[in-house]
Amino acid sequence: MSFGIQPIHIVAIVLVALLIFGPRKLPEMGRSVGKMINEFRNGTREITDSFREEATRPVAAQGNASLLGTNTATPAASVPIQTPFHAPAPAGNFCIQCGAANPAEAHFCNQCGAKLPEKVNQPSGASEPSQQ
């Protein structure tokens, strides 16, 4: 059983309740506890259904901004972000399909399972593999 409660514990709880409330009140209390548990389950089911519905509904750009009371004005011209010339190449393998970063020794993407491209091992000074 759950929470470490064994059948003997349940029997002891029922006997104590029987002594406190009497045999006439016990069935009524059991019914009310059952109804309370049923209402709790229905409430949690409704909440999870509404969360799922909200998560699957497409988001409208104007709708959410007006609900939150935020400014819906479009930003000025966007400034492109430039990376420095001496920036090191990112370490690891990147998936062609989903773009997820994977360990350097991985052969398949950890996120989508696609086969990662084969890496060509080149000496650090050579720009192309030698043709023989």
Notes on the protein architecture:
- It is a single chain.
- With 132 residues, the chain is mainly alpha-helical.
- The chain is 44% helix and 3% strand.
- The chain contains two helices and two strands; from the N terminus they run H-H-E-E.
- It has a two-stranded antiparallel sheet with strand order 1-2.
Number of helical segments? Answer: 2
Q: Judging from the principal axes of the Cα atoms, what is the shape?
A: elongated
Radius of gyration over alpha carbons?
31 Å
- What is the makeup of the main sheet? 2 strands, antiparallel
Which structural class should the secondary elements be placed in? mainly alpha
Terminal CA distance reads 72 Å
What is the β-strand count? 2
- Beta percentage is under 5%
Helix-strand sequence: HHEE
List segments where confidence is low: pLDDT < 50 over at least 5 consecutive residues.
none
Read across the widest sheet, the strand sequence of neighbours is 1-2
Q: How helical, in percent, are the residues?
A: 40-55%
pLDDT averaged over residues: 75
Topology:
Blueprint: H1 7-56, H2 61-68, E1 93-94, E2 101-102
Antiparallel strand pairs: 1-2
